[in-house]
């Protein structure tokens, strides 16, 4: 009896101990879960409050009101903080004159944030971000608007420092009028069409920023605790080159300018004009070249423009006959005839070289002419002119062109005839051509340019052979190339940037 009684007592004690331990574990787990739920609820309230703050800050910062008040609610164990120097935004235009880089804008963004434990919910740059365990998600988008090839960026800056806990109210005030950053036409002088910015003037006046932006690339860089979220947003809004620097906590998006729109100086022999962002299809609307003679001679001159891009090559060559290079001007000289040829080849197809030729171009009529400036000859070429026709031919390709078309043709597995222009649109294609068929210069130029990608280099050449550059006055020679730009998200044509400053008082 004694042994059984002792066993019963021991069992009861063990049962009670197990029950108490289990209850403690349940209370501990339940307490932790309850704390997590409460903290998450607090974070959700702060997220909602920051979204409301975002909307009110936009009203003030973008000029629709001067003062707005937002009840942020209780912070529980967290704290609301306004910081004027947290993060910055920088805009650079690389090669904005072709040789140098312009820093268009560089300033702090500031932020208003709620911090609780390992979670930060913050307003910065016109957006709301949530940062936790080293990662960032976007709650609402920043003020970065990209559409077509236009970037609109009203920079919203927090220009005050404050902090509060418990029940908190934020008062937002505009601190100054909106500052126009780009475009900014405040310079005293103008350097002429094609110059995106004015240089510093001797009288100390400021540079002039103008649209459309040309040359190089435009980059937007954000340094921030929330840089990963900024990078994700850049990727969703553009197809530009987006990169992150984890060590410096920066996100950068790079957009290419559509360089070839408008007038340009004629490059030297072997140098190029960058064509960027040309739309698909028959996008070229205006393409003209004027080549003026220098101290040398235009006798026996072969002047050409060519493209080599991937598997595709194109060249148009104007040949000035021997004997008229120095005697054609003054302008009362009788008209002469000279040849103009157009070549195209794609190594990824079995076809040989396409050759279009007019051997009897009249020097005084049509889109390709010989003009005069005093006693100096000018080669005038309108590659989008329709007044001259060219014949599709089977040539020997022995001309002194910049590209080796004979080698291209030898590497082809079959002759090019017939060839089909498979575009549709303003030029009335779909059309198949055989040797002896004709077409005008405008359609040929627009067709072959449509076969290249959106970016390529248009290069200048002249010969024969290794002829120097002295016969062409590049300073007095120029061109115009206009085309419809692509709407793809890698390009920028128009940039609109303003600075909008607000202060935030937390009570």
Automatic annotation (TrEMBL):
<protein>
    <recommendedName>
        <fullName>DUF7308 domain-containing protein</fullName>
    </recommendedName>
</protein>
<feature type="compositionally biased region" description="Polar residues">
    <location>
        <begin position="203"/>
        <end position="212"/>
    </location>
</feature>
<dbReference type="InterPro" id="IPR055732">
    <property type="entry name" value="DUF7308"/>
</dbReference>
<dbReference type="Pfam" id="PF23960">
    <property type="entry name" value="DUF7289"/>
</dbReference>
<dbReference type="InterPro" id="IPR055713">
    <property type="entry name" value="DUF7289"/>
</dbReference>
<feature type="domain" description="DUF7308">
    <location>
        <begin position="275"/>
        <end position="484"/>
    </location>
</feature>
<feature type="region of interest" description="Disordered">
    <location>
        <begin position="184"/>
        <end position="212"/>
    </location>
</feature>
<dbReference type="Pfam" id="PF23985">
    <property type="entry name" value="DUF7308"/>
</dbReference>
């Amino acid at each position: 009896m004694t042994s059984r009684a002792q066993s019963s007592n021991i069992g009861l004690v063990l049962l009670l101990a197990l029950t108490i331990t289990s209850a403690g574990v349940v209370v501990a787990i339940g307490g932790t879960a309850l704390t997590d739920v409460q903290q998450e609820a607090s974070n959700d309230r702060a997220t909602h409050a920051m979204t409301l703050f975002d909307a009110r800050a936009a009203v003030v910062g973008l000029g629709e009101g001067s003062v707005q008040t937002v009840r942020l609610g209780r912070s529980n164990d967290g704290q609301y903080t306004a910081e004027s120097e947290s993060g910055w935004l920088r805009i650079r235009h690389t090669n904005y004159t072709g040789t140098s880089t312009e820093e268009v804008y560089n300033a702090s963004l500031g932020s208003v944030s709620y911090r609780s434990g390992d979670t930060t919910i913050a307003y910065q740059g016109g957006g709301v971000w949530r940062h936790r365990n080293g990662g960032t998600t976007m709650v609402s988008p920043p003020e970065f608007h990209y559409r077509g090839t236009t970037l609109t960026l009203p920079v919203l800056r927090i220009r005050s420092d404050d902090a509060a806990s418990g029940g908190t109210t934020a008062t937002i005030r505009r601190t100054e009028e909106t500052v126009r950053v780009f475009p900014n036409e405040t310079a005293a002088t103008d350097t002429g069409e094609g110059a995106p910015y004015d240089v510093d003037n001797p009288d100390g006046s400021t540079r002039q920023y103008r649209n459309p932006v040309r040359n190089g690339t435009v980059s937007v860089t954000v340094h921030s605790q929330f840089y990963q979220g900024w990078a994700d947003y850049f990727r969703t809004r553009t197809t530009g080159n987006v990169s992150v620097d984890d060590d410096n906590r920066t996100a950068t998006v790079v957009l290419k300018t559509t360089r070839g729109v408008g007038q340009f100086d004629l490059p030297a022999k072997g140098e190029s004009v960058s064509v960027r962002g040309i739309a698909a299809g028959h996008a070229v609307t205006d393409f003209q070249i004027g080549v003026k003679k220098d101290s040398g001679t235009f006798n026996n001159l072969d002047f050409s423009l060519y493209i080599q891009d991937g598997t595709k090559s194109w060249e148009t060559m104007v040949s000035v006959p021997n004997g008229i290079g120095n005697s054609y001007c003054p302008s009362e000289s009788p008209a002469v005839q000279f040849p103009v040829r157009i070549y195209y080849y794609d190594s990824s197809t079995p076809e040989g070289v396409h050759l279009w030729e007019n051997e009897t171009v009249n020097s005084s009529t049509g889109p390709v002419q010989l003009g005069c400036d005093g006693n100096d000859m000018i080669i005038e070429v309108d590659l989008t002119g329709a007044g001259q026709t060219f014949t599709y031919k089977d040539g020997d390709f022995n001309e002194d062109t910049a590209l080796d078309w004979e080698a291209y043709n030898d590497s082809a597995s079959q002759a090019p005839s017939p060839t089909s222009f498979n575009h549709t649109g303003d030029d009335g294609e779909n059309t198949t051509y055989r040797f002896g068929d004709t077409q005008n210069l405008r359609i040929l130029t627009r067709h072959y340019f449509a076969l290249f990608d959106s970016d390529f280099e248009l290069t200048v050449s002249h010969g024969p052979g290794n002829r120097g550059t002295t016969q062409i006055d590049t300073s007095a020679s120029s061109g115009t190339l206009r085309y419809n730009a692509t709407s793809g998200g890698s390009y920028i044509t128009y940039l609109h940037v303003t600075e909008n400053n607000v202060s935030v008082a937390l009570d």
